[in-house]
Fold this sequence. Notes:
Blueprint (H helix, E strand, L loop, with lengths): L5 H15 L7 H11 L12 H9 L1 H4 L3 E3 L5 E3 L1 E5 L5 H8 L3 E6 L2 H14 L14 E6 L18 E5 L10 H11 L7 E5 L18 H9 L36
Amino acid sequence: MATADKSSSSSDDRTRLSIHFDVPESSHPDRWAQLWDAGDYLPWDRGRPNPALRDLLNHKKGWIGDHYLEKEDGSKRRKTALVPGCGRGYDVLLLASYGYEAYGLEISDKAVERCLEEKNTNGDTYMTNIHSDGAGTSTFLKGDFFANDWNNVVPSGTFDLIYDYTFFCALSPGLRPAWSQRMLQLLTTNPSGLLICLEFPTYKDPSLGGPPFGLTPQTYLEHLSHPGQEIPYDESGHVLVGGQGSPTSDRLERLDEHLAT
């Protein structure tokens, strides 16, 4: 019986994606939309919510707290959650099942259609996590993450929780300062919002290009410690830790590990 060579398949995917995105950075949104429109090559689609997110929601309450906030008058409101580049919406539907008002953002109409198909076809399978106050809501939006024409779906224009599941690594390196600045803009400040990043692919040599582009945990930290600023890298594409100096006053702060228990 023959078995697939996963390493070879991953290499082929990297090559195909690199060729597809070998165009000016300004054309990348259209290239993502083309992949969704064709629908026959979506190598990032795993067909289910990310297990790490489910584990976080189940076992890391010290990090994320409850799915609601108490107002000054004693009433409660559900927390809002955003998943940029949400794919077929698996993680959006999971967050909604845990009580959040969850929003998924994608770049093309076809991607949003795929999200709605998943919701209509398999939405009930996510409802095993419903709290006593019921499930939250799931909404899918077409829009450019960096534009301001979509986030008016929430009154404040900001979110209590943002989940970056391989979104950062899909962006070309030139967009990283804008990514960190945009995360700062989209996170609520009263009380403090929470950005959850699945750091990927930490094993990949940054010099190989992308997407996905190789990222180390230090790359996330440097950019989020200096939102909107250009961060220096060495010739091989590795971030220079501390190269931009001390964190800025508007930095996002990393939570201590002991809070995750």
